[in-house]
Amino acid sequence: MRTDSPAGRWLVTGAAGMLGQDVLTVLRRAGIEAVGLRRADLDITDPAAVRAAVEGAAVVVNCAAWTDVDGAETAEEAATAVNGTGVRVLAEACAAAHVRLLHVSTDYVLPGNATEPYAEDAETGPVNAYGRSKLVGEQAVAELLPQDGYIVRTAWLYGEHGPNFVATMLKLAAQRDTLDVVDDQHGQPTWSYALARRLVELGRAALKGQAMGGVYHGTASGRTTWMGLAREAYRLSGLDPERIRPTTSEAFVRPAVRPAFSVLGHEGWADAGLEPMPDWQAQLAEAITRPAFTDLLRLPSKS
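That's the dTDP-4-dehydrorhamnose reductase sequence above. Prediction below.
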């Protein structure tokens, strides 16, 4: 029988990933009992293994995902097996055990052609295979866990524990005098550690009965472009932002279409008693002081 006690073990799937590692760090710093399972520890498409892992948990935070956006274009079935079927298996296990599920999704489930921030109830319409695979997962959570399923869409994620745009820009600073960066895609750069803190806050609110199940947008406030993000990362690192030059998406054709507009609205947080996440500049200013980023500035130059 489900209770609204804030106590209990949390389970984090995809615990070896950038976000999964941060969620575990936040939980442990908060004194919350947590178990992290990597892909090698748990195949989320295996119903029996998932049921055993979920048993006794209070909250499951699903950070497991197929994240190769371009690779999904030629392997959509494989991507959907993880992002869709695997999420359904998790949702079924959570429903049977009366466990709350916080499922991390993506802005890519949206069509990306808006001019104003997407509301949580905006009509979906993925423009690539990755987005379609993630939408299958969202639909499973909404169907099976209408009260205890929390779909948290994020976007433009960067952090200390994996490849990401900010780290790439800082690495390239030692190799190139100038960089051409896309300036016609708009979004909300989001620090994975800030998102991890928000996921834990949401899970705690859910356990107290203060947060309803549904869709939440876990992105930073404000908006910018990839070029704007790169320039701000350089400015904060003491590098010349003018080394970043604007270009268009047409100059960087990739297998998967990218949404032109990935700005999400955050109205849903008020109902959970939580403020929207900090703006992207504030998040970046805090993140970029971490050794994982500052160490990149010590890389030898091309000369």
